[in-house]
Design goal:
Elements lengths: L4 H28 L11 E8 L1 E3 L8 E3 L5 E4 L4 E9 L4 E8 L11 E2 L2 E3 L6 E2 L1 H9 L9 E9 L2 E7 L3 H20 L36 H22 L4 H21 L6 E2 L4 E2 L13 E5 L7 H16 L23 E6 L9 H12 L29 H18 E11 L4 H13 L2 E10 L6 H4 L6 E9 L12 E3 H21 L4 H7 L1 H9 L3 E3 L8 H20 L9
């Protein structure tokens, strides 16, 4: 979209995406409005708050226990709203009351902690193993969760309003469930209506939902969410067919792809893993972080709740990209393996890559969250594959037998291909961020082995300050951009006989760090960013050689050198804070 469609079609693409996006809203509203009814007083529900439930396993109890992390609905400086649980032991259930102006200082813990659920009726705590077992029989429990609150807005008043669910709300949910089943029975096609593609194996990096019985991607969605998404997907597909009758295939595909990306944005929020954020009073998307853990209580958006609607809101993001990207200089996007690149030798002046971050993110498995919907909206994907390819993915994931050695070997091949493609006078940029030195060592080892010399490193702000991981942790605020040059002879062949002396390398290292850290401080680069930003200059000293040897002829490993790098960085950092620090004992 960015490299090819926007430069080629420009404003025409934006106009068509906007026009057909409005048509999809109208058609979807005709089909789905009855499942999102407005209140009798004119208020509009914008979100429905749900909790997965279990049956209490306490002696003689058996009450339905809604699993909730917290009882707060809104928790702001000037406004706080909370729930109160009202046990109904005789009915084996609980009811709720809404408390306006609740004291923000009060703790309002929910019913679940570390996967174990405590019953409000009898006080018995059902252990996590039993909780999982109950959900496994119900495929995660999204389809029979408990609706405990409805969030509304009013045309003549600002803010959010909270009320308990009514029989009308429950009826709309049940009707949506019945309508989805009718559509499933009537559906024809190679692909199922609701994605039935399998989730990755239990234990896969970043995934925990399989422990609770979720086995297919469709299990992540409630029936009403699935009904909304399948409706949008079908309408986008219909737009593509209409456009093929009116215009050329390339432009039709461009418009359909833009609309499909809006469906992806909706899927990120129309999911039983989307959290209600009591601080901001809105539903967060699934990917607040790059993982799919279980979520006990979740928020369901009303597709037509806001003034612009969730669908049009998603569409505006797509249109904003089209408007802000350059509409000149058409590029080319090609799918290829990084270890077997189609470009010829020395053909590029710059190779820029943001490679996998060791064991931090299960990229391919997470991409299937969107891919199963893209298959149902974009013809180019069709039925060519069940899910995205993963066999050659360069990550560390023990469940798949991919260890540190596999990562280094695969990354070495990829980085060697990058060096082959770039000209001897060219430059390489590798974007990397990882919280462990092991992750850094693996990436850097692959680059050194592949014949790259690191010449600089710059931290560039790439993370949103509101990211979940950034809120209460010391995670990197930036991604470090490693600048490197091919360690090659003028004819393009790899320098393989340039041997460095360990004593000379160690003598040069402290001065390089001493020259670099004050410059980082002047640029406002501090903390963990500054530590890792020293890697470029430090590694230039080491990586300019094909091999660094001690006086005995023994080769120095990158790991051993990095220990000296961290020590030199620590010493320089202390010297910038304290005058003449004694670092002998560090």
């Amino acid at each position: 979209v960015v490299l090819e469609y926007i430069p080629k079609y420009g404003q025409r693409l934006a106009d068509e995406v906007r026009k057909w996006g409005a048509w999809i809203k109208q058609e979807a509203e005709k089909e789905l409005a009855e499942f999102y009814p407005k209140d009798p007083d004119g208020a509009t529900p914008i979100a429905y708050l749900w909790a997965r439930t279990i049956r209490c396993e306490g002696p003689g109890c058996g009450a339905e226990v809604p699993l909730m992390r917290s009882l707060w609905l809104a928790k702001k400086a000037k406004r706080s709203v909370a729930l109160r649980i009202v046990p109904k032991s005789e009915d084996r259930r609980v009811d709720f009351e809404i408390i306006e102006n609740a004291k923000a200082s009060e703790e309002r813990p929910g019913t679940v902690k570390r996967g174990s659920a405590t019953c409000p009726c009898c006080g018995y705590t059902t252990p996590v193993a039993s909780v999982r077992k109950q959900f496994q029989a119900r495929r995660g429990g999204a389809a029979d969760a408990r609706l405990f609150c409805v969030v509304t807005t009013r045309a003549d008043e600002q803010g959010r309003f909270y009320r308990l669910p009514t029989d009308r709300d429950i009826a709309a949910v049940n009707n949506a469930k019945e309508e989805l089943e009718r559509r499933k029975q009537a559906h024809q096609g190679a692909l199922s209506l609701v994605p039935d593609e399998p989730l990755p194996p239990q234990g896969t990096l970043g995934f925990r939902v399989q422990l609770y019985g979720m086995e297919q991607w469709g299990d992540l969605f409630t029936p009403r969410q699935a009904l909304a998404l399948t409706t949008l997907a079908r309408l986008v597909e219909k737009v593509g067919k209409n456009l093929l009758e009116q215009t050329d295939a390339g432009f039709a595909e461009a418009v359909q792809t833009g609309l499909a990306l809006a469906v992806s944005r909706c899927a990120n929020q129309f999911c039983s893993l989307s959290k209600w954020n009591s601080g901001r009073e809105l539903v967060d998307g699934v990917f607040a972080r790059q993982a799919l853990p279980i979520l006990w209580d979740f928020g369901e958006l009303n597709l037509f709740g806001r003034t612009d609607g969730v669908w049009l809101g998603a569409l505006e993001w797509i249109l904003a990209v089209v408007s802000s990207c350059p509409q000149t200089g058409e590029g080319q996007a090609t799918l290829a393996s990084a270890t077997h690149h189609p470009l010829p030798d020395d053909s590029a002046q710059c190779v820029f890559t943001d490679p996998p971050y060791y064991d931090a993110v299960p990229y391919a498995d997470l991409s299937d969250f969107f891919f199963v919907w893209l298959k149902r909206t974009i013809p180019m994907f069709g039925n060519s594959m069940c899910l995205s390819p993963k066999d050659e993915e360069c990550i560390v994931d023990e469940i798949k037998g991919k260890d540190k050695a596999y990562f280094i070997n695969s990354m070495r091949q990829a980085m060697a291909e990058a060096r082959r493609v770039v000209s001897p006078s060219g430059v390489g940029i590798v974007v990397f961020a990882h919280k462990s030195t092991a992750g850094w060592e693996a990436q850097l080892q692959a680059m050194v082995d592949a014949g790259w010399t690191m010449t600089g490193s710059w931290p560039i702000d790439t993370e949103m300050g509101s990211r979940l991981r950034a809120m209460n942790s010391a995670a990197l605020a930036s991604s470090v951009h490693l600048v490197c040059r091919p360690r090659e002879n003028p004819d393009g062949s790899l320098q393989e006989k340039k041997i460095g002396d360990w004593r000379d390398v160690l003598a040069e290292l402290p001065q390089r760090i001493h020259d670099w850290m004050p410059r980082l401080a002047e640029e406002g680069v501090v903390g963990a960013d500054a530590i890792f930003a020293c890697l470029g200059p430090a590694l230039e000293v080491f990586s300019r050689y094909s091999r660094v040897e001690k006086a005995s002829g023994e080769a120095v490993t990158l790991g051993e050198y990095l220990e000296h790098v961290w020590a030199a960085v620590s010493k320089e950092a202390l010297s910038m804070i304290f005058k003449d620090p004694d670092t002998a004992g560090l």
